[in-house]
Amino acid sequence: MTDALAVERLSVAYRVGGRDRAVLRDVSFRVGRGEAYGLVGESGCGKSTVALTAVRYLPRAGRITAGRVTMDGEDVTALDSDQLRHLRAHTVSMVYQDPGKALNPTLRIGKQVAEIFTLAGASQAQAQERAAEMLRRVRISDPKRVMERYAHQLSGGMQQRVAIAMALAKNPALLILDEPTTGLDATVEAEVLDLIVQLRREFGTSILFISHNLAVVARMCDRVGVLYAGMLVEEGPTAELFNAPRHPYTVALLRCLPRAGEHKDHNRLDTIPGTLPAPGARITGCPFADRCALADDRCRRELPPLIDLGGRFARCHYHERAAFLPRQTPAEVRLPAARSDAAPVLEINRLNKTFHSGDHALRAVADVSLAIGAGETLGLVGESGSGKTTFARLVLGLLPPDQGGVVALDANPLPPLLEERAEDQVKALQIVFQNPDSALNRAHSVRRIIGRALSRLGGLSGDALKTRLIELIQSVRLSERHLAVKPRQLSGGLKQRVAIARAFAGAPRLVVCDEPTSALDVSVQAAILNLLADLQAERQVSYIFISHDLGVVRYLSDKIAVLYLGRIMELGSSERVFDGPHHPYTEALLSAVPRLEGKQPSRIRLEGEIPSASNPPSGCVFHTRCPRKLGAICEEKEPPFVEEEAGHSLRCHIPLAELAKLQGKAL
Amino acid sequence: MQLENPAIVAFILRRIALSLVTLVLLSLMVFFGGQVLPGNVGRAILGPFADEASVQALNQSLGLDRPYIVQYWDWISNFVQGDMGMSYAFRSPVAPFVLDALANSCKLALVAFLIVVPLGILGGIVAALNVNRPIDRIISLGGLSVTVLPEFVTGIVLILIFSIWLDWLPVTATWPEGAGLGTQLYHLILPSLPLFLVLFGYIARMARAGMVEALDSDYTRTAVLKGLSWPTVIRRHVLRNALLPTITVIATQTGYLIGGLVVVETLFRYQGIGSLIYTAARGKDFPMLEAGILTIGVVFALATLAADLAYTLLNPRIRLGAET
Question: Searching chain B, which residue's CA lies closest to the CA of residue A167?
Fold first, then answer.
């Protein structure tokens, strides 16, 4: 039987500045009938180019320079425009990141789904009927209503279901999924992945699954290929490849991810030095040689072939030694963090924030009280809309809280707004944003950005400033040569280091890190997490760390606050909250995260969508989705926030002992 | 058109209120500029050689000796009821002059509009579909270069070419009394051309930008990968999204097309509202001038309002709001 997709010795180049720059180099792989094949790699490795080549939707500058792509036995590269349209209409579908943009904003959903059926020759009425049927198959319970809507009126999860429904409507031989869950909440991601697993069973579709998220690919795919600098460097059955990688790049990539049990107090993450070769770079030997601790002269001279290791392949001369790749960053913690149990740095008492719009009142943060000690990290987790960012902005004084709430620094209540705070108080609380691009002034050099922060926040000038500037730059592992450049000349990771240096300029007591690594590749993320951990140990600074990546939060946090609709549902030490017994919401959040190692816990599905904060459910706000709901009491009475054991508080009617029993945990 | 978003109704009402405020402010400026600042109106009308008594008598008969606020209130409440005052120059009510001129201006605007909008949008679309190819360069650069030429330059050049040299079109825009629609149109083509040149580049540029963005969007990719034919993709998925901002721009330009044509109307001797205020200004006919300017203000306010409403109503994201 023919393969659903066969990529043979494919090379693709983009023409930039009159020169062809290679993006894919001699890539070969196949996706068998009914198989799910995963393609992983960091940004810039060429993953998406593979997908766009397969559907012949390369940008105008892109060109296939060698090789071919066969789909369902048909050479895609040789089709004329009519045949290509036929292929797209019948054989292949694609779903990509950001479903909100993938749907037409000015056409009703029904029309967008139905047009696939009219294209296939159905009448308007039939097409409507079949569109509704298709939406039902992607588990949309009220398809008629959804068809009347526009894309912006649906949640991200719903939008992606619609996109998947459109993709499967033609019952394609091959479904290409390019980062289909990136940017979605963990709970929504889990839902979408579940759906894809089920639909794959129903439709028997072959899948090419592209993602930067190794755990997601591990969960979804039968076989995996690892792309690096446009080359396939390793390929094999999923379990074998992730459990015993045979290419140093795969080994290194896996080591960058914080695993369960790893914590800033015990170890540092491994990193990958250097950067990915730029598109079009001349590569003579192994593309990874410059960053590989195993590399020798032979690696730099001679490109290794894809070596057959019996059902799996690795492009490495020393594949048998890959597992013994020396670490680039020692695991041991040089300077352990010294936390004192003395008075907390930041105390928050009964903090509320209500947004008013017309006669709607939206309670974004409700009755939050907590304390953060010196050198301690508080991790904030929760789905989007849970109030994490609003909370951070209240602490920083970017938003005024409702009357009565107190944010106290070293036991002194802070004025609610930044403008009213004393200079020392402003200095003490700093922030690092997700996107350093928008946080750093593009027109200024790094020297100016950090120098300005030092003079404004640190009150320094002249030689003192210069000395401090060098120290600061070195403490974020940048060198003096970075001082003269502008942010846009730096990679994402380096930019984030500049942003961190800026935040640390005034010797802050507490830094809010709002998704600081979400836009970064895992190898860069590991370095930034190490840096944050080191800085904390050196300076006793406290963090409020916001991230949707629970693995990252766990690595860096001492305490966790789980937020839902602006309320703290659970607050406790990192181990307690993660290991359980935990609040049913925490339980659901944790079970939604795909894992690389260990057994995937049985998924707890959250029914329905996160309710609107402007009209929260009565009683316990989580009762509408809670898998462990007791009954009427949950609907009628908001559970109190009770310290069930030392330093571990929950907002649930079920006693902790009972939760422990239900979740099979020891108390 | 269904309105599911209550915030939109509030927005529209607020927008209308804002237009009214703008008009009140404009009327105040016009009133003080036209009746207060010129100083002695009676003297201005009668000239330097009239004796003081007759100047005062005239001022009194015009009601100019009353407090300003009373004069303003009188003037504006009459204006709202359609009484725009008496022309000093013609000694007869201003309203018929203004309304006639407005009707003429609308005719010219309509002709220009019918020429420039389809061609401008088409030009933008063609340019966008051929991004960075020669045809795109010609349309974009050409459009831009003629946009920056003032109407009195292009107007004169066009008169030289089409009326004097080729003798295809009449020099003046004024048609003979009682002429039919065809003749009227025939006279309006030449004055529309400078307006076409001013607006074409502008509209084409907006349409091109919108098209380029829409063609590059993920939803267009979705549509193409569905296997739809290229014309269907353009028609169903690209155009509406691409042209939404352009429609707004066009609506805003209506104000200019109707009220901003002083130069063109004067050049082509056309009895529009532009040449009306020009004449009134030269003849110190303040009531006429004030009425003309205020009418143009109303036209501008209505055009801007229409632009906002069009954008709001055509964009489901705004019309329906987000699902909460």
Answer: B226
CATH number at residue B186: 1.10.3720.10
Give me the half-sphere count of Cα atoms (radius 13 Å) on the Cβ side of residue B5.
19
Task: Show which residues on chain A lie within 8 Å of chain B, measured between beta carbons.
Answer: 55, 57, 85-90, 92-94, 96, 98, 101-107, 115-116, 119, 149-150, 152-155, 163, 166, 170, 358, 612, 614-615
Q: What is the pLDDT of residue B323?
A: 43
The set of long-range contacts for A570-578, using a CB threshold of 8 Å and a minimum separation of 24, is: A570/A648, A570/A649, A570/A650, A570/A651, A571/A370, A571/A641, A571/A648, A571/A649, A571/A650, A572/A647, A572/A648, A572/A649, A573/A647, A573/A648, A574/A263, A574/A379, A576/A645, A576/A647, A576/A648, A577/A648, A578/A260, A578/A550, A578/A554
B-chain CB neighbours of A85 within 8 Å are 227-229
Instruction: Tell me if A104 and B10 make a contact (CB, 8 A cut-off).
Output: no
The total number of structural domains that make up chain A: 2
* Nearest-neighbour CA in chain B from A57: distance (Å): 8
Closest chain B residue to A154 measured between Cα atoms?
B323
Question: Does any CB of chain A come closer than 8 Å to the CB of residue B185?
Answer: no
Contact between chains at A101 and B218 (C-beta distance less than 8 A): yes
Indicate if the pLDDT at residue A274 is higher than 90: no
| pLDDT of the residue at B4 | 57
CATH code (residue A79): 3.40.50.300
Is the same domain home to A208 and A142?
yes
Q: If you average pLDDT over every residue of chain A, what do you get?
A: 90
- Closest among A309, A272, A223 to A45, alpha carbons compared: A272
Range of the domain at B201: 104-285
Among the partner residues A92, A105, A155, nearest to B317 by beta-carbon distance: A105
Instruction: Examine residue A44 and state whether it is found in any structural domain, yes or no.
Output: yes
Helix (H, G, I), strand (E, B) or coil at B182: helix
Band the pLDDT of A569: cuts 50, 70, 90: very high
Domain-terminating residue out of A324, A341, A368: A324
Within 10 A of A118 (CB to CB), how many other CB atoms are there? 17
**B-chain residue closest to A163, CA distance:** B222
| Residue with tokens 């605007």, as numbered in its chain | B109
Q: Is there a domain that residue A264 lies in?
A: yes
Range of the domain at A308: 254-324
B9 has a chain A CB within 8 A of its CB: no
pLDDT category of residue B35 using cuts at 50, 70 and 90: low
Does a structural domain hold residue B76? no
Residue A393 maps to a domain: no
When pLDDT is cut at 50, 70 and 90, the band that residue A464 belongs to is: confident
Which residues are A349's β-sheet partners? A406
Q: Report the range out of A490-494, B114-118, B191-195 with the highest average pLDDT.
A: B114-118
Q: CB contact, 8 Å: B316 with chain A?
A: yes
Average pLDDT of span A158-180: 93
Where do the DSSP E strands lie in A32-168?
36-40, 62-71, 74-75, 92-96
**To which H or E segment does residue B130 belong?**
none
Minimum distance, in Å, between the CA of residue B270 and any CA atom of chain A: 43
Q: Across residues B35-46, what is the average pLDDT?
A: 68
pLDDT tens for each residue of A511-565: 999 999 888 888 889 999 999 999 999 889 999 999 988 999 999 999 999 999 9
Nearest CA in chain B to A93: B225
d(CA A387, CA A363): 9
pLDDT tens digits, A88-124: 999 999 998 889 899 999 999 999 999 999 998 899 9
In a domain, A577, yes or no: no
B237 touches chain A (CB under 8 A): yes
Q: Which of A262, A296, A324 is the last residue of a domain?
A: A324
* Interface A:B, Cβ pairs < 8 A: 80
